[in-house]
Amino acid sequence: MPVNGNHPLKLQFGLINHEGRYLTAEAFGFKLNASAPSLKKKQIWTLEQDLQDTQVVYLRSHLGRYLASDKDGKVSCEADGQNSDCRFLIVPQSDGRWALQSEQYLRFFGGSRDYLSCFAQAITDAELWAMHLALHPQANLLSVARKRYARLSMEDGEIAVDLNIPWGVGALLTIVYVDGRYCLKTSDSRFLSNDGKLLTQTERTTQYTLELKCGKLAFKDCEGKYLSPMGPTGTLRSGRCSKPGKDELFDLVESHPQVVLIAANGRYVSIRQGVSLAANQEDETDMETFQMEIDKDTKKCTFRSSLGNYWALVAHGDIQSNATEVSANTMFSLEWFGHKVALKASNGKYICTKKNGQLLAVSDSIGEDEQLTLKLINRPMLILRGENGFICHHKSSNTLDASRSVYDIFTLQFSNGSYHIKGVDGRFWYVNSAGLVCSDGEVPEDFTLELLEHGRLAIRGRNGRYLRGDQGGTLKGDGLGVSSSALWEY
């Protein structure tokens, strides 16, 4: 397990056939086809490895059913559990595409439109599938061999694989999909070239095909060599290997939000003075940065320091950053008030900031001293995905789509408790009088972010309403509450 307790992300992807169409699991009758031109919910497949034999994989549809083939090559997607007909082997090709072979019958899966079968004895173009990752494209990258995370090293102009805990904005990488290949983009918008240099534009040397080995990822460059960490600092570049071994394997790991907290006295909450938390610092360093990990079930939150310890409630309402494991005393409830937040500890009391800056969970009600400004620091590039797809500029108007299979990267700027959201053209988001979110603002408009669930946030406009995707796929700023259409993966 990685040192910071983050779990590798389950691999989810779309499978594209030789005609450029996606394998689709229909809800009606659990039918299968390869007709869809883009990657939406019905085209997403989750890879599950067999626990005994890591070469064997199962493909689970968005309906929770498994791809299967019988002895006559007839394919279905009705099985609600893993059985012998659901066992497949991935046979990678030199161009990065896969052939899927039934382990039971040794035939290959392929076809087009409604004509899919698993009966081919040899691999032709019709049996090859390209993998399009369907994960949220921002993650931390963990080297399997070194057990270290990648980060942007500004001073050396490279990606170094040397972090025990993926900390700060430099540890966030964006996986960019370009015509069947993938680029690794750093938090300052540069792309990793196979020689280890960072380039401002994508080109042939920054594009990699993804390969899977035992459920881990390998990045193969344009010359057939693989990325691996090199030398004492773990500089990420292509080595000499033309077959991936342990050194060339990586996990994509979920990137939790990292925040700084500003108390009513205008100072940052810090652990610089030791284990007791106090709001007494004027600047942001790793000692003032905390990772928020929101529990999927209770929606309560833990705060972890850069040293790896959790905030915990101890005797007399004192809050200390000294816990090594999650328990009831390390969990806090969040209550949002516009761009401020109040934290309730496990004793039922709110955390307040005393005159000397000390944080104590002793308050029964929320006043000024119980409110903190929370600033999200590790999403300078913002990619938002809702229940129907990504947020993207509309092709022919100033509005935004919220149901696209491709995404646009927006810039998030913190401003006095609120945020400004900017597009690639340098123009800002705003909510117009009709409640539509527009993307061509000359001046920035304030939005507030509420980190409400594990991996999901809500965005509130200046009008106090939430941003939501409507039935037609348009982004609107008129949500009265936090429904599923107003929650965004980030």
Distance between the termini: 24 Å
User: Level of helix content?
Assistant: under 10%
H/I helix tally? 0
Shape field: globular
Which CATH architecture of the largest domain?
A: Trefoil
Kindly provide the name of the CATH class of the largest domain: Mainly Beta
Number of strands: 49
Main beta-sheet strand count, sense and barrel state? 6 strands, antiparallel, barrel
Describe the SSE topology.
Elements (H helix, E strand, L loop, with lengths): L11 E5 L5 E4 L6 E5 L8 E5 L6 E5 L5 E4 L5 E5 L8 E5 L5 E5 L5 E5 L2 E6 L7 E6 L4 E6 L4 E6 L4 E6 L9 E6 L2 E5 L5 E2 L5 E2 L9 E5 L2 E5 L6 E4 L4 E4 L11 E4 L4 E5 L5 E3 L7 E4 L8 E5 L6 E5 L4 E4 L5 E5 L9 E5 L2 E5 L5 E4 L5 E5 L8 E5 L4 E2 L2 E2 L2 E5 L6 E5 L5 E6 L2 E5 L5 E4 L5 E5 L6 E6 L2 E5 L5 E4 L5 E5 L8 E2 L1
Antiparallel strand pairs: 1-4, 1-12, 2-3, 4-5, 5-8, 6-7, 8-9, 9-10, 9-12, 10-11, 13-14, 13-16, 13-24, 14-15, 16-17, 18-19, 20-21, 22-23, 25-28, 25-36, 26-27, 28-29, 30-31, 32-33, 33-36, 34-35, 37-41, 38-39, 39-40, 41-42, 43-44, 45-46, 46-49, 47-48
Protein name: Fascin
Subcellular location: Cell projection, Stereocilium; Cytoplasm, Cytoskeleton
Keywords: Actin-binding, Cell projection, Cytoplasm, Cytoskeleton
